[in-house]
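Two quick folds needed for the group meeting slides. Do the first one here.
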Amino acid sequence: QLQASGGGLVQAGGSLRLSCKASGHTVSASAMAWFRQAPGKEREFVGKITASGIKIFDAESVKGRFSISRDNAKNTVYLQMNNLKPDDTAVYYCAQAGSDGQYNYWGQGTLVTVSS
């Protein structure tokens, strides 16, 4: 089970750190990713961190503002979001990749609302 938390209401320019904690299994050997889905839009891949710590961001809009980290001892992955913009408003989901590279495990999502 993946439990995402840390969402909330923040003003534009503010910061939030989302957490994704796994329970019942370990994530240390897995790539972990963050996705987001804004109202009325399709789910968007934000970025991921591999088991070896390589970080990849796919969404051009978040590069330079978001960062991903992991603490394997706590079985937790983080998404640090800085300089938030209203367009970042979305439900953020964490996901764990299986050995086939597919994201087989998903958290329940945490809502981030950025006010202008």
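Then this one, please, same format:
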Amino acid sequence: EVQLVESGGGLVQPGRSLRLSCAASGFTFNAYRFYWVRQAPGKGLEWVSTITTGTGTPYYTDAAKGRFTISRDNAEAMVYLQMNNLTPDDTAVYYCVRHGNGIDYWGKGTPVTISS
């Protein structure tokens, strides 16, 4: 059974950091690209970051550049999103998403709330 399980979300103050994790199982992890996608309260889905297969080239939305770092551990079948200097605009549910021939599997998400 394919599983993507996010963790690491929570409530933190502006300027602080969080590290999100996505534990993958039930498939050949190395063969897939992964995204982090978020949904802020009352808003639509927003792509945040991508990490490719192989060398794991990262891509970021402009809002994430310089603050977020995506990484993957192929041995452990994990995807991470290190988020620094968080702002209230980063408040959202963050989803780990798998891409094979297309986007084909989503985790259930982990909520992130940035508030003083």
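Slide caption for protein two: The mean pLDDT is 96.
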